[in-house]
Amino acid sequence: MKQQSPDSFLRIAIKAAVIVIASSILAAVVTLIRPGGMELITSGFAGQTEGKAGKPDAPAVRGVKNIDLIETKAQFDGKKALFIDARSIAEYMSGHIPGSKNLPYDKFEDYFLKILGSTASSSPLVVYCSGDGCNSSVILAQKLVEEGFTNVMVFYGGWPEWEKAGYPSEKGGDNPLGGLGF
Question: Do 132 and 50 belong together in one domain?
Answer without folding.
Answer: yes
